[in-house]
Inverse folding.
């Protein structure tokens, strides 16, 4: 029997699993990334997590690692990555040298898409988009069962598609990216601006007057307590996401769109206006058939995604 090691490298934690080819997790370890300690310390920590799940008695056919981008996929290098504070780390070769096991590097959103496709909400679909809505917005594209990376590994940067050139400034330097409106950070920032202008809301009490503490979570709490301003903020966020997804639907006509990430846990507060926005805007014959579903893999999406990347590579051989 063959086994795979999957690593989910994130800005806050490193999760590593040993799994069989069916995605059954045999061992799982998790460590804080502590990126502030520098790249060498984090690389050592990644190796330690692999040693902890490594079972010398088992036939391990590959290691997969999902990492925040930008990456040089061809050469297995993590380029300048702000949330890891890494600078050109050849992580694929480092792990191959350490463990003598073929290693595959993939960006985290692509890996998550591959994981949901193979083991999660996308089982049975051949063409799907996975969208993660958290501090940013990322996405992965699966076409005919395979991750679509584009000519330069950039495909899937849905968060930086522009939905209003006069919109708020985005972390990438452009104005009006989907992420600037509808990510957790974008939602909080839009809410803070209106609260500063004096809109009525219980949010001020929830953050004890400190508006800088407002997050997507605060807006969720307030909306569930019936706060009208907070409900309107979720309404507009769902609408903006619906605009982003309408563009995806009209352009790619996927079978399914899977929504994951921390902000998606707001559930119907987000999904209801999002579905309405798509219904109102997208080409009807595609919009009426596309399935829009929440992600299914939860906290294992990153590690099972990394496993899926290895399986896809092995299948292609
Ligand atoms: Zn942007």
């Amino acid at each position: 029997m063959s086994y795979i090691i999957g690593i989910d490298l994130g800005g806050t934690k490193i999760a590593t699993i040993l799994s069989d080819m069916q995605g059954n997790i045999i061992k799982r370890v998790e460590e804080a990334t502590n990126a502030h300690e520098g790249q060498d310390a984090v690389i050592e920590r990644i190796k330690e997590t692999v040693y902890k799940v490594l079972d010398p008695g088992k036939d391990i056919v590959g290691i997969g690692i999902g990492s925040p981008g930008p990456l040089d996929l061809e050469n297995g290098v993590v380029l300048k990555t702000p949330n890891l504070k890494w600078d050109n780390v050849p992580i694929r070769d480092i792990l191959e040298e350490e463990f003598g096991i073929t290693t595959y590097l993939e960006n985290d959103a692509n890996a998550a898409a591959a994981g949901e496709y193979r083991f999660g909400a996308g089982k049975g679909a051949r063409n799907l988009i996975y969208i993660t809505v958290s501090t940013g917005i990322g996405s992965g594209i699966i076409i005919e069962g395979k991750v679509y990376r584009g000519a330069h590994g950039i495909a899937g940067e849905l968060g930086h598609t522009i939905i209003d050139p006069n919109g708020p400034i985005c972390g990438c330097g452009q104005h009006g990216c989907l992420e600037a409106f509808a990510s957790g950070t974008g939602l909080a920032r839009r809410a803070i601006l209106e609260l500063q202008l004096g809109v009525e809301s219980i949010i001020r009490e929830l953050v004890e007057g400190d508006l800088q503490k407002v997050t997507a979570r605060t807006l969720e709490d307030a909306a569930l307590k019936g706060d009208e301003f907070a409900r309107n903020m979720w309404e507009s966020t769902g609408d903006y996401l619906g605009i982003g997804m309408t563009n995806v639907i009209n352009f790619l006509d996927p079978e399914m769109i899977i929504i994951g990430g921390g902000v998606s846990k707001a559930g119907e507060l987000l999904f209801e206006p999002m579905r309405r926005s798509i219904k109102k805007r997208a080409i009807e014959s595609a919009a009426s058939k596309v399935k829009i579903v929440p992600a299914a893999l939860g906290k294992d999406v990153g590690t099972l995604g990394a496993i899926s990347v290895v399986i896809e590579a092995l299948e292609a051989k």
Notes: The domain at 2-107 is CATH 3.30.420.40 (Nucleotidyltransferase; domain 5). The longest helix spans residues 228-252. The chain has a mean pLDDT of 96.
